[in-house]
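yo

u said u wanted the structure for the complex thing, so here. seqs first:
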Amino acid sequence: MDWSFYAQLLLNGLVMGVIYALVAMGLSLIFGVLEIVNFAHGEFYMLASMLAYFLTAQWGFDYWTTILVVTVVGVAVGYVLFEGLRLALRGEAFERSILLTMGLSMVLQNGAVFLFTTNSHLLESKLSYQNVVLGDDFRMPVARLYALGLGFAAFAVLYLILHRTRIGKAMRGVAQNRAAADMVGIDARAVSRLAVAIGIGLTGLAGAALAPVYAVHPLMGFSFVFKAFAIIIIGGLGNISGAAIAAVMLGIIESFAGGLLPLALTDAVAFISMIAVLLLRPQGLFGRGVRV
Amino acid sequence: MSPRALLLTVIAGLIALFAIPLVTDNDYILALGISFAAMSVLAGGLNLIYGYTGLLSFAQVGFFGIGAYTATLLVVDRDWSLWAGAAAGGALSVLVALLIGYSSLRLSRHAFAIVSLSFALLCAIVARDWPELTRGSMGIPGLPTPTLNLGGGVRWRLVDPSDFYYLLMGFAVIAHGLIYLVVSSRLGRAMRAIKLNEPLAQSQGVNPLAYRLMALSLSAALSGIVGGFFVFYLTIIDPSIFDFYYTETMLISVVIGGPGSFWGVLASSAVLTVVPDLLRFTTDLRMVLYGVVLIVAMLVFPGGVGGWLYRRQVKRWRRPRPQPKPTATTP
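structre next:
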């Protein structure tokens, strides 16, 4: 156990955390503008990974084209999802929205199981066997580094959109107070639609970026979204930058727990952190003032 | 139906249910009866939480599985009796329910839904990844035939399916009786008030957190105990006891039967025990179908059968009464 072991854990955790962050920020964005928890979010992540697998392995797309195509498809799916949810839900309907997205998740997941079986597919490409080697025994697959870079790029773009553009500011306005946003003339529907599209697009990006790193299979979304849920609670419901920071923290903590603790405890890290945050700081680590 | 007719129907139904093992020893019918008993308790518990109190809980399957694992491990490893094992399973479920309920409900209903789903998924993963306790994904096959001490020196060995039929059906009757008592009493009215308008209920001196935790604990206890009994009928326990399939069946039962409708949910859990077995779909397609049913029910049939019947009843109440003097009719 020397420095390279810990450096490896740290870097792996960082990669995982960035991917968690993409998924969790999407979830948080959608919750922010629609007050809907998208229980089908993990399935979109799974479908993105599957799509990336088929694009690369079956049709021979290269890495960057695959990433681009999957992200664009994700944005398009987000538009459709928003319009579908808008038609289906009117007024105060939190429980209905959960049951609807849960039904959607069941259809997508089990449909994928039916079509593709539960077998894992490993996406093999030129990237799979390339490593960055440092020192004697520190090696990092290039695909992971790319995933890391893509994640940080997406953070930067999302941050710029939310804080520097008019539409992004409108998005934050809708998330903070819908009625007030309506009153100052913000078109809440257009803004929400864009937010949902971005949210699903980020998830698509995460799925595509992680497809060459881990095996792809129809049940992957389910266990993944459970981490994303924990993250948005830890970061504070609807708090996007909080979700990003919590995600990176969780990724790193899980990675170290995986290297040093028994397996069952590693699985439980996300859940235990979530419960601890709820008990000690219910508004989330980075939330401001929530009435409890 | 008048209360008297309802009571008579219930008694007749109970006699019929308990007479089934005397009339037939057809294992298939008994198996259907047993899974109806177990599923109806799970669905009834979910209905108590979601239908009456307005909290969507995905944690029920976690309580069920925790009860099952606790009972199994205590009976197999520590030689406890099944009574004590199942009771301990129920008690542990209540403790866990209070932990997740208290921590998340202080924040919001949204947080509760998220935490409850995370909890159910975590249970399945931990059952698989903690082999020292749960024997991992292989599970514990060949559970022993339990013997129940009925008091007065009478010992009941649960050998045949009919024994389990009586055990689970008997427990289901007790469980539904309890749920009925709760929802038709002052407690149930307070719960419905919280569901309909939380701030208003609060302003009338109803503490939402206390009532919600109470409903959650009761349903966790019932689900845990039924899990403890059911697993000895299955004679094997493995992480699939936490399978999402149970959650989906419960949700569909409650949504179709009508959240907050005691009889509606009971009836729909009976239908949902029999129908999927007759259709004999492959499991994956059945889950797809359940998803579609859930979506369609949410879109076109909110309130389920119970809600529809209630709306009809309200319409009948609002109908103008027939005039006492028939001569007063106008053309």
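Chain A touches chain B through 47 residues (CB under 8 Å). The beta strands of chain A are 131-134, 138-141.
cya
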